[in-house]
Protein: EAL domain-containing protein
Amino acid sequence: AAKGAGRGKHCFYEPSMHSEASDRQVLENDLRQAIDKGELWVAYQPIVSAAGEDVCGFEALVRWNHPLRGRISPDKFIPLAEECGLIGRIGTWVLETALEEAAKWPDNVRIAVNLSPIQFNDPGIVDIVSNALNKTGVRSSRLELEITEGVFLAEGETTDDTFARLKDLGVRLALDDFGTGYSSLGYLKKAPFDKIKIDQSFVRGAASKTSRNSAIIRAIVTLAESLDMDTCAEGVETHDDLHLIRELGCSHIQGYIFGKPVEGEDARGIANSSRVEAEGFQCVREPRQ
Ligand code: C2E
Ligand code: MG
Ligand code: MG
Ligand code: MG
Structure:
């Protein structure tokens, strides 16, 4: 640390000075205000057809630029939002923001939005989704909702009903992070998924690892095909992995090799040109603002 910088000054955000609990409390209060203060924004990452390099859609990924702490990962603040009752508000804001953006893209480009299990199990979710579609004028079949196996853990009869009502609305459903949870296979028969997103832990570096990863991916693709579902391989970064994923027959690819999450304006440019090229990123980290 720079000599004298902050010495003797009380630094509110220095974690070592605070108990974990009060640090969390501070972050929670900050998050509560983040939407109104315009600190949250949505980034969009292209999802590409495996056969060509056509952009089929984008996944909306929420971002938080904290005024003092810089960029905070959604892996950190989404769980916080879930615990402190903010996920509904943030989730609805992401959904509406993403649909507003998608309304500016060519009509065949989809938008994928992540839904927390808490949002999904909210009895009002179908109305929230339907209102957001009406408000933005986006065709329901352009919206893909990404959910994880977590939705089944709090299962009640609402879950089945929600699946049916969302399908009636015409939106698509994707099972995210497939392969990482418990008894994934059981969930596949319970819900009318349109797509399986194969978790990055199977995909990244698959070409250089043992053949186990490719055997697992191949099995998931075969399973998905016989259930009439698409497959998206997440986390493809290198040409070797891209080559392997294509060979294994996944229908869609998402990963840094085709593009990192970008701001709305840049996504719009990509959506209009409708093609991206495989670049094979050396730097595997998303740039920090
Ligand atoms: P996810 O839904 O599985 O999203 C994919 C994550 O993988 C994103 O991380 C994306 O930036 C990252 N990724 C994509 N391709 C690559 C790659 O080639 N290499 C590497 N290293 N990473 C790649 P991100 O944006 O940090 O989001 C993390 C998680 O946070 C998401 O995982 C999702 O579970 C959650 N999340 C993000 N936005 C939202 C949201 O709006 N609502 C909810 N409920 N959860 C969200
Ligand atoms: Mg996702
Ligand atoms: Mg995922
Ligand atoms: Mg994930």
User: Anything to note?
Assistant: Residues 120 and 255 are 26 Å apart (CA to CA). The two ends are 21 Å apart (CA to CA). The first helix runs from residue 20 to 34. The chain has twelve helices and nine strands.
